[in-house]
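Whiteboard transcription, Tuesday session. T.W. wrote the structure tokens on the left side:
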């Protein structure tokens, strides 16, 4: 199927398996198990709070999502087709981006930072497996980042913004979810990537994330939650690189807010 998809891996999962107490691990994994059923319903309610869409249409969007979760990998995809009507494509893109942003945020909150990529392409999905050249491209793209971040490919970014008219509220919202910043690709090297910024996600019952003032302490707490350890130079580097990305997100949001305020005054 042709689709836009996200593929995410948990950083430090080996350390989590080695050090997390079984009872605590069970609580965390239960949250991941509920993503497939609970999160789509949460966002459908947020996007259609008055339930004006017929139940069968609401269910169609939820059913279109394809999910696979195994071990430390989460895969979620939304089919796209040239025959999709503009309004349907727009709704699907908004739904998909809000959902992947929330997954990234929720995983970080529970102490399992993820690294991933959002990409487009033809993917074959069965009940338990997925395959396709696009999967390999997305995986390689995510591995270039040495931080807990999701990279949005140029192809995915073009599809997302093409589906929504510029100057609209949804366009501004999605633009705020994708921030271009410098991402570490190794010791002493970095590259500019479009990243999925989940700091300022707000919709329906979903409150804005509490952006901590002490980002270094906050990031280290999440990287070492559940008994995980920053035992090597690579692990410490990923935590520090994540802190830098979060700092860039904060700066980008201040600039975006100022631009929107200036635009409103001109109008």
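and on the right, the sequence the group agreed on:
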């Amino acid at each position: 199927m042709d689709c836009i998809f996200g593929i995410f891996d948990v950083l430090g999962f080996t350390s989590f398996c080695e050090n997390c107490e079984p009872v605590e691990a069970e609580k965390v994994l239960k949250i991941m198990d509920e993503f497939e059923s609970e999160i789509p319903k949460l966002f459908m309610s947020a996007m259609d709070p008055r339930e004006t869409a017929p139940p069968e249409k609401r269910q169609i969007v939820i059913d279109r999502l394809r999910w696979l979760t195994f071990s430390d990998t989460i895969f979620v995809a939304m089919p796209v087709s040239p025959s999709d009507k503009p309004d349907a494509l727009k709704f699907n893109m908004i739904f998909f981006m809000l959902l992947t942003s929330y997954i990234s945020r929720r995983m970080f909150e529970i102490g399992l930072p993820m690294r991933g990529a959002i990409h487009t392409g033809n993917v074959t999905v069965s009940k338990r497996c997925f395959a396709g050249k696009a999967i390999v491209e997305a995986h390689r793209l995510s591995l270039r980042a040495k931080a807990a971040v999701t990279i949005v490919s140029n192809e995915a970014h073009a599809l997302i913004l093409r589906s929504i008219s510029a100057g609209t509220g949804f366009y501004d919202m999605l633009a705020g979810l994708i921030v271009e910043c410098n991402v570490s690709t190794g010791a002493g090297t970095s590259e500019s990537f479009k990243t999925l910024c989940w700091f300022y996600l707000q919709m329906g019952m979903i409150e804005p994330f509490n952006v901590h003032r002490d980002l270094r302490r906050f990031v280290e707490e999440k990287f070492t939650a559940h008994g995980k350890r920053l035992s090597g130079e690579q692990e410490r580097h990923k935590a520090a690189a994540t802190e830098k990305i979060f700092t860039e997100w904060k700066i980008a949001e201040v600039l975006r807010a100022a631009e929107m305020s200036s635009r409103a005054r001109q109008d």
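Someone added at the bottom: Residues 2-266 form a domain with the Alpha-Beta Plaits fold (CATH 3.30.70.1230).
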